[in-house]
Known about the structure:
Layout: H1 17-46, H2 56-85, E1 86-90, H3 102-107, E2 111-115, E3 126-133, E4 136-140, E5 148-151, E6 176-179, E7 183-196, E8 204-208, E9 211-218, E10 226-230, E11 233-240, E12 272-276, E13 279-287, E14 290-297, E15 316-322, E16 325-330, H4 349-369, E17 374-377, E18 384-387, E19 399-404, E20 407-408, H5 409-431, H6 435-449, H7 455-464, H8 477-491, H9 494-507, H10 512-524, H11 528-541, H12 546-568
Parallel strand pairs: 1-3, 2-4, 3-7, 4-7, 7-8, 7-9, 8-10, 9-11, 10-12, 11-13
Antiparallel strand pairs: 5-6, 12-15, 13-14, 15-16, 17-18, 17-19, 19-20
Helix pairs in contact: 5-6, 6-8, 8-9, 8-10, 9-10, 10-11, 11-12
Amino acid sequence: MATSTAAKKGVAGRIDYDSWEKRASNLSKELDEEDEQEKEAAASALGLDGKHARSQAEAEEKSKAEEMQKAKQRLEAYQKREQGVTETLSGLLGPVGDDDTTAKVEEKHQEIKYITRESIGAGKRVLTIADTKGPGKIVLTQDLSNLESRTATNTSLKPKSYDDDAENKEEMPEATVHRGIIKLNLRNLHQCTVVVKCKIITGTIEISHCEDVTLIVEGDDATAATIQADLCTNLDIQFHDAPSGKNIPLRVRDTNSGPTTTLFWGQDVNDRIYHAGVSNLRVRTYRDGFVDLETTSDYKKNGAKAVGNAAAEEVQFVTSVIEDELITERVLKPGDSKEIKQGARPMTERELRELEKKKSQIEEALDEKLKDLIQIKEKNGGGAVVKEVEKKAVEKEEVIEEVYASATKEEIEAIVSSIEDQKAKGNEAFTSGEYAQAILLYTMALDEAARLPDVSNVTEKLSTSVVSEPLEQLFPRHVILSNRSACFLKLGHHEKALKDGSDAEILNPAYVKGVFRKGLALHAMGRYREAIDALAKAQKVEPKNKQIKQALQFAEVRLHQEMRKRMET
Length: 569
């Protein structure tokens, strides 16, 4: 506490009032500061200083605000990075104007603009075509497929080693080189055609505020697995022999062997067109110059309606190939998925039912396979005693908890959920063209699967190398093995691709993708006769699969060419 000081006498014994007033002012200021400090200390003790929440509700609101701020910062950082690599080409066919009559439009010259690497600035890999009006055509040439981008290696992941593999390295691999543009954006285009012939690394095209626009994706390089269209009118999307996002091209030595595409757009579940607020959408797939599949869609005719603050234009739909037909479905809102996940991809009502059915089948299989293994907990507090007994021998008053071999049902479900997450991340990396990253994620999923109680059965089955009946598993490992095989094929590691494809076939011969990728690996290794045998097995499982049929034809042609060369020599 501050102490008072007597005022000094001034000249001729008079009081120095100026000095006294100054000292009084300082003393008053000190007292105010001490009073404020005491208030702050009291507020802090009561949790009223703003640093601590006064209630659970306030704590939750504060946490949400902090998360929103972090999300905003991440979004701003992402937008800043994207702006740094984005090339925007505006007015290529002419400016957007409202004064052009139909007659004037018909008189305008049908201009064609070709986009090459020279059209893109240094370091620019995201291409935006915006604010232009035709008539005319904009062509993204194959030359853009020669653009290079590098992805740094995830140093937090340890490289996987394989027994007796000469390629094992202690160091992480170098940065991955990707070729093509990263993403394509089409914004505010009118009365024109856009032709995509180049590689799109992410396989993503975003279209918004376009009218009377035709998008043509054609050629072996043009990969557009996912298209998002918003607020467009009279949009025509065409795929001319365009590959799927998971296409594994066959490597050929000459240019007279036909297309190298083995999986066309629509033949994988991740090939999709999402659209919201799009009027008069038309989607077509072409094969060898002829229309293969076709459908139309309109958000109003599909039943989109405003709900609360959400307008009808915000209702999301998805068009994809289902059982050899182009089908449009409504996408579920995040709260309608009943906490069931399928990776990052939005779900439809049909997919939700399928996942619920799959989950139910897994639970029933667990109950049936391991129903005789239970854990009995005594009521007297003496601890848990584990016994293998028949359920019927358990007394009603005992507390029973089912266990599955060395793990409880809850533990198994947690492991399965972890495997699903790693698998979904691997699928996303594969779709983005990050095949080395996808291999690591799929390997982590398989390592996680090794924690399941049925691992001994799986190991024993694989050690026999005998293809027989499908093995009952707590998680379908053959799916992950098949996916990893596809990654190895993409990177040219044909022996590893063959190993994973063969293991997938051993675990489940009926899973056609595993057998098919085994055949592709054998083909890439020049073992055409064995490739024909494997592809013939795959075709027997799915006789209507055009991809398998074409790969089989390639293998037969190669075998005949090889035999002819031997005869000539």
